[in-house]
Amino acid sequence: VAMIGNGSMEDAQVWIETRRLPGFVELYIDPGLHTYAQMNLGRITFLSCFRFLPQMVRVARISRRQGNKQRNAGEGSLMQLGGTFVMRQNGVATLRHPQRFAGDDPSLSELVAACRQALGVRRPSIGSKATDAVRRLSSKSAVNTEPGR
Questions:
Q1: 27 beta partners
Q2: CA dihedral sign of residues 120, 123, 124, 130
Q3: Which DSSP state fits 87?
Q4: Strands 2-5, 26-29: parallel, antiparallel or unpaired by DSSP?
Q5: pLDDT digits over 12-40, tens only?
Q6: How far, in Å, CA of 145 to CA of 149, rounded?
Q7: Is 103 within 8 Å of 59 (Cβ atoms)?
Q8: Is the dihedral of CA 13, 24, 85, 53 positive or negative?
Q9: pTM of the entire predicted model
Q10: Beta bridge partners of 93
């Protein structure tokens, strides 16, 4: 897993420490925004602020509740939007999700499906052992939820 930021090395260090990233995540810095241009990622505009205002307010509230805040303008370009990409080893993208506004990220199910596709992993079939085990557990819990038990 690789992440690309557009701030300074110092900003990246603070970001890593405050986010507690797992060891397998690699963080790269691109203050010149070359990668963003190559991936055709946009920037926040005056028009997009109004177009996506309800979504941006919702994301900002959630982010604030989680303790996140923009500390200063030295943390890279505030107007640069990011994106989420899942790539196969041959460079072909199984997911390309450029942000339309800050916090516009793919759903977890989209991300998992793209990772499965990139790795060539298939979902278990309906008649699989895992599905049968879930059915057995579901039927047992239904018995245990009867009144008086």
A1: 3
A2: positive
A3: E
A4: parallel
A5: 888 778 777 778 888 888 888 899 899 88
A6: 7
A7: yes
A8: negative
A9: 0.62
A10: 87
